[in-house]
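Thread amino acids onto this structure.
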């Protein structure tokens, strides 16, 4: 069977997803094109050999609509013969792009593919794709869930309540994310993965100098009187500091067959060892990373002890903490350079960003296996295991 390998991965620094953010004036097509151009420049490949560009993007409306992958690859200077496609698995879209690229290589459909992702949340606000929709679900869905589902913030609060995760633990994890990201930035640990753009050379959202006392003074971000009546177990522990940041950014990963890499004289950085996707309760919504992780490990024949590092998207602090508690994972191996709470979460790009950051950290620490997983709206999750190659 053919093997899919990653030759290189690159990302932009992540900008704050608001009008004053450093990347707000960068059109979404140009934002994605920047990473697509950078992956070609870093590897020296002829972009004409790329069989497909697969780009994750969630807000497929406005300038991010009409298959942004195609426009971005042309903006990046790829030949007109190179196709592109945009995919949406919500927050896991960039990771799904990597999975689709790897599956294409393994199946023999592709020899070379670029998996990427982008989101300009300052220009295309979250939820824009559904704006003006009176009925998102239809009759049969609502009949199955007559009480109605809830927003992700409420789902995260339910996870905190049902796993008995305290406000102190949540704030401590959030502070940890910023501290680790700040140290990584100071020590140049992100340098190899970054392609500066629009004058931004480092992630814009990292905060230094906060304390647990500072975070304890923040008010709950998702308190809702109706939800409090419906779910009296919720203790309202999540604040703006313990949720991922709204952000702008892009990333790109070069995937090809091991044979093609050898033919082109390229040294692969990692093998895509195992791919899994899972579903879980759509009310809790963010817990599918637990069965997805178990599924990936079972398919790979590996145990948790075999995994050197984990990248788990920090959509909300209790999501990662519940996952770690359920699986008995040592948090010292998780998000060792910080996560989305500090770095930001440009929705469609985050899956490719986590892979880029995780592989970089794996190489710096001399580890062998990296497991990446991301919760996604609707009760979904991707999980991927990468094996570093010497």
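Threaded sequence (390 positions):
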């Amino acid at each position: 069977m053919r093997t899919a390998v990653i030759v290189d991965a690159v990302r932009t620094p992540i900008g704050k997803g608001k009008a004053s953010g450093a990347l707000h004036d960068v059109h979404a097509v140009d934002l994605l094109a920047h990473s697509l151009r950078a992956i070609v420049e870093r590897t020296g490949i002829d972009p004409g050999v790329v069989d497909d560009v697969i780009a994750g993007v969630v807000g497929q409306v406005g300038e991010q609509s009409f298959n942004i992958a195609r426009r971005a690859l042309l903006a990046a200077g790829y030949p007109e013969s190179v196709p592109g496609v945009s995919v949406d698995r919500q927050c896991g879209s960039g990771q799904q792009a990597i999975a689709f690229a790897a599956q294409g290589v393994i199946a023999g459909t592709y020899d070379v593919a670029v998996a990427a992702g982008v989101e300009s949340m300052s220009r295309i606000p979250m939820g824009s794709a559904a704006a003006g929709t009176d009925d998102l679900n239809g009759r049969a869905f609502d009949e199955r869930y007559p009480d109605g589902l809830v927003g992700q913030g409420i789902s995260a609060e339910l996870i905190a309540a049902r796993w008995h995760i305290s406000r102190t633990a949540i704030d401590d994890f959030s502070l940890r994310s910023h501290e680790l990201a700040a140290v990584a930035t100071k020590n140049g640990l992100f340098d190899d993965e970054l392609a500066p753009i629009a004058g931004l050379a480092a992630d814009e959202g990292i905060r230094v100098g906060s304390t647990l006392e500072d975070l304890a003074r923040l008010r709950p971000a998702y308190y809702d009187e109706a939800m409090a009546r419906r779910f009296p177990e919720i203790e309202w522990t999540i604040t703006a500091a313990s949720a991922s940041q709204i952000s702008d950014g892009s990333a790109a990963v070069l995937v090809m067959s091991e044979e093609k890499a050898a033919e082109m004289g390229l040294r692969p950085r990692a093998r895509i060892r195992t791919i899994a996707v899972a579903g879980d309760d759509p009310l809790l919504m963010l817990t599918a990373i637990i069965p997805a992780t178990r599924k990936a490990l079972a398919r790979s024949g590996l145990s948790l002890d075999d995994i050197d590092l984990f990248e788990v998207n920090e959509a909300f602090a209790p999501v990662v903490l519940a996952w770690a508690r359920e699986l008995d994972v040592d948090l010292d191996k998780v998000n060792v350079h910080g996560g989305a709470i500090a770095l930001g979460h440009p929705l469609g790009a985050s899956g490719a960003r986590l892979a880029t950051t995780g592989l970089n950290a794996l190489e710096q620490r001399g580890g062998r296996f990296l497991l990446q997983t991301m919760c996604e709206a609707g009760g979904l999750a991707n999980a991927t295991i990468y094996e570093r190659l010497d």
